[in-house]
Amino acid sequence: MKLGGVLYERLGWHAPIIFSIIVACFDLIGRLLILEASTIKLWADEEKPSETASTPIVVVENERTLPPSTLTVWELLKALLGSPRGLTAYGMTFV
């Protein structure tokens, strides 16, 4: 028997629906956390070290770590809904 059938049989008809919503939310979070190569290249170009830079860039195994972002929640949502990946994740989860 498939997972949906087991959930339905043991926990009732709400269980497969709730399970699907939870999986979709994890999928949305995972899609939003993926960084595209083009975005990483843009950040790397902006963060080129200079001799007078006050904030050193930490190099770990030839990879740079970026400073934390200072976006507000609304700026973050605007950025996510303005990107193709963000729109796809939103559409796959809620539509």
Strand order of the largest sheet: 1-2
**Total number of helices:** 5
Kindly state the mean pLDDT as a whole number? 76
**Global morphology:** elongated
What pattern of helices and strands is seen along the backbone?
HHHEEHH
Structural class: mainly alpha
Number of strands: 2
Helix content: 55-70%
Largest sheet report: 2 strands, antiparallel
- CA radius of gyration is 20 Å
Report the end-to-end length measured between terminal Cα atoms: 28 Å
Distinctive features:
95 residues
SSE arrangement:
Elements (H helix, E strand, L loop, with lengths): L2 H9 L2 H20 L3 H10 L12 E2 L2 E2 L8 H9 L2 H11 L1
Antiparallel strand pairs: 1-2
Helix pairs in contact: 2-5
Could you characterize what this model shows?
The chain is 62% helix and 4% strand. With 95 residues, the protein is mainly alpha-helical. It has a domain of 35 residues. Helix 2 packs antiparallel against helix 5. It is elongated. The mean pLDDT is 76.
